[in-house]
From TrEMBL:
PANTHER family: HTH-TYPE TRANSCRIPTIONAL REGULATOR GALS, LACI-RELATED TRANSCRIPTIONAL REPRESSOR
InterPro entries listed in its UniProt record: HTH_LacI, LacI/GalR-like_sensor, Lambda_DNA-bd_dom_sf, Peripla_BP_I
SUPFAM superfamilies associated with the record: lambda repressor-like DNA-binding domains (SSF47413), Periplasmic binding protein-like I (SSF53822)
Gene Ontology molecular-function annotations: DNA-binding transcription factor activity; transcription cis-regulatory region binding
Keyword presence, Phosphoprotein: no
Name of the featured protein: LacI family transcriptional regulator
Keywords: DNA-binding, Transcription, Transcription regulation
Highest taxon above the source species: Bacteria
HTH lacI-type domain sequence ranges: 6-60
Pfam families per UniProt: LacI, Peripla_BP_3
Length: 338
């Protein structure tokens, strides 16, 4: 048996008012009194009225959906940022569609091009191997605001929410210098991505300002910031026969991989090699040797990106927000007094 769906006509008939009055009451129109709005809502609840979202979307031009594109959801940083985005979207009465680029430019382009007509706005962190970001501008060209967080691109017409990656690197390297480290290496991410460029710049500037040399072997550009790449880097250090006093890693998972590989080879952390990571993933505090790391405040970053996309939908101008980082010091970098 087919059950008839309640419509606004049924509510209007029950109350003895016009359909347009019911429609305005349900949309909280100021021309309808608070008392009548309450009566309409009560009857709507009694009759189990469910708004026709398709009709509402056609009328308003809004889909009440935000698209989110991230490199992956297997990192706490991105899952926490998504939580912030979803919390803000929920408050605004919006749904969220989540996509993973898996750091593939081809996959990211396909996702972004598919979003026009599906969503009202897009929040994204760009793929690591992306160099041409024109497909994001195709969204803004059709009136879909774009907000980039964490990883951004200057050629994209978008609002941005980032952490001060440069300052985070400065804090990490200064801390290592304060611990008595003089030979400090840097595990860098692919330099096509702005966050890893800024972290490398912070490292280099701080080393030079402290009068410490940076040899050709000091900077290692990894293929990514995974645990496997961190292990590969540690093997590279071991094979070189010369270990630095410390390594500043551009990502926590690479630091984790390197720490485990070095410790398996009998290298002590921090006594032989001190370490600082970046992101402050939850795993940092649970390691046998807890990892010092720069906190990016991922939830806050996601929530602010969500707020920004809704501000854009309300006609606010696009802006750039930079969050101040914080260095969380743990055992992996504490060498002073040892």
């Amino acid at each position: 048996m087919t059950v008839k769906r309640t419509s606004i006509y049924d509510i209007a008939e029950r109350l003895g008012v016009s359909v347009s009055t019911v429609s305005r009451a349900l949309s909280d129109h100021p021309s309808i009194s608070a008392a009548l709005k309450e009566r309409v809502r009560a009857v709507a609840a009694e009759l189990n009225y469910i708004p026709n979202s398709v009709a509402v979307n056609l009328k308003t031009g809004r889909r009440r959906t935000i698209g989110v594109v991230v490199p992956g959801i297997n990192r706490s940083f991105f899952s926490s940022a998504i939580e912030g985005i979803e919390d803000k979207a929920y408050k605004e009465g919006y749904d969220v569609l989540i996509y993973q680029s898996k750091d593939s430019a081809e996959r990211e382009a396909r996702i972004v091009r598919s979003l026009a007509g599906k969503v009202d706005g897009v929040i994204a962190s760009i793929a690591a191997d992306t160099t041409d970001h024109a497909y994001y501008n195709s969204l803004t060209a059709v009136g879909v605001p774009v907000v980039l967080f964490d990883r951004t691109a200057p050629a994209v017409e978008a609002g941005t929410v980032t952490v001060d990656d440069y300052q985070g690197a400065v804090m990490a390297v200064r801390h290592l210098i304060d611990q008595g480290c003089r030979t400090i290496y840097h595990y860098a991410g692919p330099q096509v991505v702005d966050i890893w460029q800024n972290r490398l710049r912070g490292y280099l500037d701080t080393m030079h300002q402290a009068g410490l040399s940076v040899g050709d072997e000091a900077v290692f550009e990894g293929r990514n910031t995974s645990e496997a790449e961190g292990r590969r880097y540690a093997r590279h250090l071991l094979e070189s026969g010369r270990l630095p006093d410390a390594v500043f890693f551009t990502g926590d998972f690479a630091a984790l991989g390197a720490m485990l590989e070095l410790q398996q080879a009998g290298v002590r952390v921090p006594q032989d090699v001190a370490m600082v990571g970046f992101a402050n993933e939850p795993l940092c505090q649970w390691l046998a040797t807890p990892l010092s790391s720069v906190d990016q405040f991922s939830y806050k970053m996601g929530y602010m990106a969500g707020k920004m996309v809704f501000d854009r939908l309300k006609g606010e101008p696009q802006v750039g927000i930079v969050i101040a980082p914080e260095l969380v010091v743990r055992a992996s970098s504490l060498r002073a007094g040892q």
